[in-house]
Design brief:
It is a single chain. By secondary structure, this protein is an alpha/beta fold. The protein contains 11 helices and 10 strands. The strands form 3 sheets. The protein has a 5-stranded parallel sheet. Strands 1-10-9 form a 3-stranded parallel sheet, covered by helices on one side. A two-stranded antiparallel sheet has the order 5-6.
Amino acid sequence: MTASVLRALHHGRPVGDPLVLPNAWDAGSARVFADAGFDALATPSAGVAASLGYEDGATPAAEMFAAVARIVRAVSVPVSADVEDGYGLTPAELVERLLEAGAVGCNLEDSEGHATLKDPQRHADWLAEVRAAAGDALVINARVDTFLFGTGDPADAIARAKLYVAAGVDCVYPLRAPIEVLPALREGITGPINMAAAPSRESVAELARNGATRITFGPGLQRYAMGAIGDLAANLRP
């Protein structure tokens, strides 16, 4: 699968018909989602970290890329990889590692240390370098973390998103944006918008009605699965 296939899935979608990308954390979960008929998959950095025994943000880059490669090998649909803030790699190195793993998209966040927003113009310049290194080979989803670590003002998210779109990203992802601000984001941002859903049909439908172009779940599906296994484990005890 190529980036052009994944990119095309983002465009020409009417309101109410978003691209839904389940977040697979290992090869087994990836096969489950692909067999269910989803057109593409994403990975969750926190979910992959948990599956490998790490805290969120503590996965070594080599292990993250290896996990992505296993997921890609397990399915025949496009896979977009959450690679956090790029692990300190140069844009060229980051693109090379993603393509070696077989990913055709990536999620890149604009905060560091799970606490601090990066300077938006410097981050936009870095995203432009990633785009230049990747050409059309990667669908870049730029995470906007102002609702996590900033003011929470939609205007701040829109300002950052505009810089990132101008830098050449394919989609922006205002993480933790309240659903009530989605229409304002939709009005102010050109191009596809990724929103995070809870692991339920109702959450997906609500985001779809309010104009989300692309829907992912972060680590929510992995945590839901672990909760179900926890319940099973409790029931198996004598």
